[in-house]
Structures are given as C-alpha cells and as structure tokens.
Structure prediction request, 250 residues.
Amino acid sequence: MKFKTALAVGISCLLLLSVAVAGPRKDKDKEPAAQTVDSGSFGVFMNGRRVATETFSVQQNNTGSVATSEFKTDAGVDRAAQSSELQLALNGDLRKYDWKEVSPGKAHAVLLPNDNLLVERSANNPQDKEEEHPFLLPLSTNVLDDYFFVHREILVWKYLASGCHQDKGGVACPQNQQVKFGAVNPHQRSSMLVSLAFTGREKISVRGVERELNHFVLKSDAGDWSLWFDDQFKLVRILVASDNTEVVRD
Prediction:
C-alpha cells in the first residue's frame, strides 16, 4: 500500500510510519502477524542526574497496535513504579488504555470507549470501589499520560500521518506549521489541547556525540517540550527546559 493511499483510508499511524520510512510495498506482500515498530528504553534526567528509566515496546499487526511501557525510578530516588498498555485500532482510535501503579501505591485506571466517547474507571487502592470519569471526547483523542514518553513518540507519528507527505522516499513536513490534537491524561483525569510543529533539522549533542536530528515542538498549557527524532522517526531526546528535565534514548 502506498503512502498516499494509506493516508486516504486512515490506516494506523504506526503502519504509516513504517511505510513512509521503508517505501511503498507491493500489494501481494503479506502483513506479519506482529511486528515490533520500536522498543528500548529512555533515561530520565533532572538537573543532569539520572532519576528514572522507561522501558517500552510498540507492536503492530493487522488489527491495530499496542504500546506497553514500564517506568521505574533509579536507585537513590524515592521508589516509584508504574506500567501502561495502550491499544489502538487501525485508524489510530483508542481501543483501551490500562495504567497501573505498582509502587509506592497500588492504584489503577482503565480508559475505554463508551458510545463513541471515553470513560475512565479508576481506584486509588485495590479494595476501593472504582470511580467513573467520563470524557466528552472522540475516540481519536490521544493518550499523553505522565511518565510514559513513548506516548509522545506515537503522537509525532500521528502528526507525520496527518500533516506530512512522501518526498523522495522520506517524509517532508511543513516547517513551523502547528497541528492541533486533543489529548487526555488518565493519571491526572484531565483533558487538554496540544499542538505539534516541525521546526527543521538541527545538529545537537546526544550523549556527547553530535547528531543531525528532526526537531519537533510540542506545546500545551503545561509548557513547551522539544523532541528530536532520527531519520527512522524514532524518538532520541526530549528536553523540558522549564523543569530542567531531559529524556534520552539509551
């Protein structure tokens, strides 16, 4: 399926990314049962000190995609551990989002479609009765939960699918053109409007090595995040200057 055709039929953002990077596929090619789009870990640094690690995996098949993630603080930091699983349909709509706090508490939350809207069921303790929190938001709303930086990677993939085009085997995006997205933060039980823009290619130092990367800026009421992606559109670095926080792929 060619890239432009994929855009027209609204195929999943993850499949769009793989087609954009690898080039068009022949119709006779068969989709694998499951394909790992990206996996690895991000180190989280505050004021130059490593404080946590996110380990993640994003897989796709012929029914949609699943992103799993575990977040754990490093030694010497107050113990905290969380996990999440984000399930998306082929068109990028939410199928299910499951979040668990393993430490220091035992909280959990599930975000599900409900009559073309979203509802979150959550409890702060295993013995507590679940509370329902409806969101008057469409199924296309993006999940941007705390501590799971792979969610920002997936959002940029959606931006690539919606605002960019194929160019000489790669992907070209309008420079400094903002695209708005609706998002929900299940951890905070809140929704927001965010915007993404591609600002161009930049040479920056990552772990002491100079690299030329694609720079995107994510804007929200909480502030601006700078995100850098390599030529395979995998997230390499995030900088939140207002919080002196840096996220770097291991």
In short: The radius of gyration is 18 Å. The longest strand covers residues 190-206. Residues 1-25 have pLDDT under 50 and may be disordered.
